């Protein structure tokens, strides 16, 4: 199976509709990418790795080098899904030139197919600058976690008329600037529907609406690695319980000298 391309993903939305919703999950490691790859259209190396892998309080301290290291691992671990890497906070907002310097490193050093960046109208020039220079860009509007300090938290966006209008306008601006796709996160459902129907590029929802052209979740949230998850997450399994159980039984075996056994030790052949 050949790896999906940006035009192939974009081509899934025809006349404003995506018949087969696009499946996207986050991946941060090679093995995780291998396991998810057959089931997904896109893998996102999200800057959520700051919290999920590094235990950071937000995505703000995630660096370009971290994104590149994990992005390269995910590309190595996958061969079917389109891989998109998040641009981390501080690596792109200052100017289109700064964004190009960061994005070109991501493209060259990871082999990913494109980058994702947060923001609406303020990022339009940057989205255009990158796309015109051969770097596919996915936008991200609504709840933009890198702006948590300005937003005042991770609550759903678009509860006021003004905010509703701003998010819809941001989405069109980013689409018009040349983005190939858009993530819309943590918004009142009517906004997600309006955005999905108003832009010609695929709109991937998270905490948005089943009406979107696709869905994305943080894999560790989706598989049940955490006790607390946002309301918009559905836990499809309880991997935390599996790990806890395996570690508990391993510890008991070690303490009882019940592991290793004959099957696991090396002895000279008789
Ligand atoms: O960083 C991330 O995982 C994301 C998705 C939740 C969209 O940006
Ligand atoms: Na992100």
TrEMBL record:
Cofactor note: Binds 1 Mg(2+) ion per subunit.
Keywords in alphabetical order: Cytoplasm, Magnesium, Metal-binding, Methyltransferase, Pantothenate biosynthesis, Transferase
UniProt-listed Enzyme Commission number(s): 2.1.2.11
Gene that encodes it: panB
Subunit structure: Homodecamer; pentamer of dimers.
Protein name, entry field: 3-methyl-2-oxobutanoate hydroxymethyltransferase
GO molecular function, one term: magnesium ion binding
Pathway(s): Cofactor biosynthesis; (R)-pantothenate biosynthesis; (R)-pantoate from 3-methyl-2-oxobutanoate: step 1/2
Purpose: Catalyzes the reversible reaction in which hydroxymethyl group from 5,10-methylenetetrahydrofolate is transferred onto alpha-ketoisovalerate to form ketopantoate.
Compartments, record wording: Cytoplasm
Reaction catalysis annotation: (6R)-5,10-methylene-5,6,7,8-tetrahydrofolate + 3-methyl-2-oxobutanoate + H2O = 2-dehydropantoate + (6S)-5,6,7,8-tetrahydrofolate
Residues the entry annotates as binding Mg(2+): 47, 86, 118
Necessary cofactors: Mg(2+)
Organism per entry: Sphingobium amiense
One CC-aspect GO term: cytoplasm
Protein family membership: Belongs to the PanB family.
One Gene Ontology term from the biological process aspect of the record: pantothenate biosynthetic process
Active-site residues from the entry: 185
Positions of 3-methyl-2-oxobutanoate binding: 47-48, 86, 116
Pfam families in the cross-refs: Pantoate_transf (PF02548)
EC class: transferase
């Amino acid at each position: 199976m050949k790896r999906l391309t940006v035009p192939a993903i974009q081509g899934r939305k025809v006349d404003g509709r995506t018949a087969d919703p696009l499946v996207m999950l986050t991946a941060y490691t090679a093995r995780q990418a291998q396991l998810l790859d057959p089931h997904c259209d896109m893998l996102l190396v999200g800057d959520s790795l700051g919290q999920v892998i590094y235990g950071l309080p937000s995505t703000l301290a995630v660096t370009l080098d971290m994104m590149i290291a994990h992005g390269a691992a995910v590309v190595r671990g996958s061969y079917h899904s389109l891989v998109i890497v998040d641009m981390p906070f501080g690596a792109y907002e200052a100017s289109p030139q700064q964004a190009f310097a960061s994005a070109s490193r991501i493209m060259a050093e990871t082999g990913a197919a494109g980058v994702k960046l947060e923001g609406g109208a303020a990022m339009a020039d940057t989205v255009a600058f990158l796309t015109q220079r051969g770097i596919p860009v996915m936008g991200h509007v609504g709840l933009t976690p890198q702006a948590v300090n300005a937003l005042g938290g991770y609550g759903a966006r678009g509860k006021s008329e003004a905010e509703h209008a701003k998010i819809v306008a941001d989405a069109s601006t980013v689409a018009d600037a040349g983005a190939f796709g858009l993530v819309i996160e943590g918004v009142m459902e009517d906004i997600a529907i309006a955005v999905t129907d108003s832009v010609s590029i695929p709109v991937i929802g998270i905490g948005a609406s089943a009406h979107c052209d696709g869905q994305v979740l943080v894999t560790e949230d989706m598989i049940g690695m955490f006790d607390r998850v946002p309301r918009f997450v559905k836990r499809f399994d309880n991997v935390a319980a599996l790990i806890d159980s395996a570690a508990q039984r391993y510890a008991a075996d070690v303490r009882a000298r019940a592991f290793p056994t004959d099957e696991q030790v090396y002895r000279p052949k008789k």
